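Teaching soon. Got one?

===
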Amino acid sequence: MKEEYLRIGTSYFKIVRRPNIDAELKEVIIPWNRPTIVDDHGKDYLKEIDKYEGFIVKPSHTDYEPVFHKFYNKYMPLSHNLEIINKKGSTPYTFKFLKHIFKDQLEIGLDYLCIIWNRPTQILPILCLVSEERNTGKTTFLNWLNLIFEDNMTMNKNEDFRSNFNSDWTEKIIIAIDEVLLDKREDSERIKNLSTSQVYKTEAKGKDKVETPFYGKFVLCSNNEKNFILIDEKEIRYWVRKISTLENVDPDLDVKLKEEIPQFIAFLNERKIHLPKKTRMWFTKEQIHTEALDKLVKGTKANLEKEIISIIEEMLEEFELEEIKLTLNDLQNALKDSYYKVSVNKINEIVKEKWKLTNPNSSYYQYYKSINPGTNEWQVSSKNEKGRCYTFKKEFIQGMLNC
């Protein structure tokens, strides 16, 4: 029985031990072609390679199964020493650090970590750690999680999340983004939908998309407290925590936290979850509500105003107009094209209540571009519409852009 090679379906792979930045060896599975195996070991060697029907992602930290119904588990086994883990020990630095991160929501934070460890398939809120201050411990928290969950966690950049090729992170239990700035509406819609999704289409470069189970928990860190991501007032998926500066910064904190990991895992193995499950994301909106969330919602509202101004400015330029008449429904439809799902009332708050515009007109021209059949070139066309419209002058919009 040869363990360093695998045949998954009709393809061959090799299990290699790749050193990380700390010179620790981590197992990774990489494609390996059949002729190379024959060249290295002979044709008869192929008969001894373990064969599986395909890959599967079945996360578990307490009862790990490398193979499930002839499918090879891509969720990586953890390397923590079970003999040490089963021995109780104190974790003073870990609990002091977690108290700093979660403060008055410490029990919810411990429940959150306990659920990931003991019930990894459970959907959880999107945890966001924000602060404009320095030396807060946000990145230390991500590094600490990475030490616990090892290769089952990934540290992404903003562009990684936006890329079509996602096979490097869609099979992980924790997807972290440090210095996150996902300020486009399609970004927030994507991450929001993923947070409650049970399946996702994984795509690797040069390969077809494959629908796989999705168990990822998002942890976002940002120095931008107001609008690192766009969320709506009624959003229930985000748990946003403002992190203060660490007092008496310990230069060896990372080392001390790493040393206490076995004892903390023993704690997670025995701890009972305090809060009962009340929503599909376990916690209620009220339980995870914070002032930092309110600040982010307020920042999103400001972003909505900027988006409306930008849309009107683009229309004025595109149709070469000095003014344009639009209804609130017109603006709502234009915002939908920009992935903004917002009520007419919210648009009304900006246009009528904040900008103090009135809408005496009931008839107006709606502009659009069409192909001229004679020249096959684009031309500006218009049609007469009925509706309570507002007049947006170019001078007014340019003044708003310069504010």
Observations:
- Residues 16 and 74 are 14 Å apart (CA to CA).
